[in-house]
Amino acid sequence: EKGGYEHFMIKEIYEQPKAVRETMSGRLAKDDSHIIFDELKWTPEEVAGINKIAIVACGTAYHAGIVGKYYLENLARIPVEVDVASEFRYRSPLVDDKTLVIVISQSGETLDTLAGLKEAKRLGARTLAITNVVGSSIAREADHVIYTWAGPEIAVASTKAYTTQLVTLCMLSIYVAALRETLAAAKVKELIQGLRDLPAQAHEILEDVEPIKTFAQQYGFNEDVFFIGRALDYCVALEGSLKLKEISYIHAEAYAAGELKHGTLALIIEGVPVIALATQPDVYEKMLSNIKEVKARDAVVIGIAMKGDDHIRNYVDHAIYIPDAHKYLAPLLAVIPLQLLAYYAAITRGCDVDKPRNLAKSVTVE
Ligand code: M6R
């Protein structure tokens, strides 16, 4: 059932090109001019009635939600707030019939997310579920459902669910942007073409995992690892850090790179590995300054950058490249080396990758 792979997690990491292709299947117009969501069929009037979006999820799905905020705000120009479900449901959220509440859940069974969805409905919100499991509790409860079609995810550490959630959120944002007329046709086309490139680009990363494996073997016994990034790279940093913690038990923290000097920089000392994501062109120079900051404290810096960025080699100890992608889609690729890093670090340390201690695949208790 593991199809020749040693663990479900690595199998699912390698399934990402296919999973992402499935998520997009039938949803990209042939001429790349628009997104098709037969399951929504929203009208401009309906969308005009939404003045705010709240995204509610847990764990990795929450990290996808943060990327979703970025997409929806930038592309569709609607204010978005993102909450972890266990906070949302108890904080009297400002949600009403003009709010669209999007819940994201791979399993569709996470108790807090389901409760958040019920609370949103009680407050009169329209609800949309993004989930991977057909007929799950969350799918049944929501007004609208978009399935991610990632195929079953067995490993506790979520991988292909995250990338397919990101693709879904990107498509949803383009879809809503079209209804609100906030995105020029040329930009829509550019993004859809970028989406089409993703499966092959993800495949390309998976063809050469040696550098990241070597790195994981070399630093797998360190006690602390830091992940830094700005903008979308910060969202990916959060996910990379969660992955490392949950399966390799290495203490990891993700920081918005600009926040370092507000406290955390005190922890950066000689030899501490820092994974620095630098895929976002708009904040690239700022990111380089942050890399210099940690290098000046003798951290070991691994830069994750887009292919073609030779410049970064002057600042980091090791550079890991992802294919040159649309900046909004870079997170889908940048997360893959981080998933692999967590996997190989866990293997190096002899951890039970598919069943990490204290964790369950589906959290159906509070
Ligand atoms: O099934 P869900 O997407 O609702 O699950 C949410 C989290 O429990 C899940 O993403 C968890 O954080 C994973 N173990 C992360 O790898």
From TrEMBL:
GO terms for molecular function: carbohydrate derivative binding; glutamine-fructose-6-phosphate transaminase (isomerizing) activity. Its EC number is 2.6.1.16. Residues 43-182, 215-356 form the SIS domain. The keyword Transmembrane helix does not apply. It catalyses: D-fructose 6-phosphate + L-glutamine = D-glucosamine 6-phosphate + L-glutamate. The active site is at K361 (for fru-6p isomerization activity). One of its GO terms (biological process) is carbohydrate metabolic process. One of its GO terms (cellular component) is cytosol. Keywords: Aminotransferase, Cytoplasm, Glutamine amidotransferase, Repeat, Transferase. It is found in: Cytoplasm. Homodimer. Catalyzes the first step in hexosamine metabolism, converting fructose-6P into glucosamine-6P using glutamine as a nitrogen source. This is Glutamine--fructose-6-phosphate aminotransferase [isomerizing]. It comes from Propionispora vibrioides.
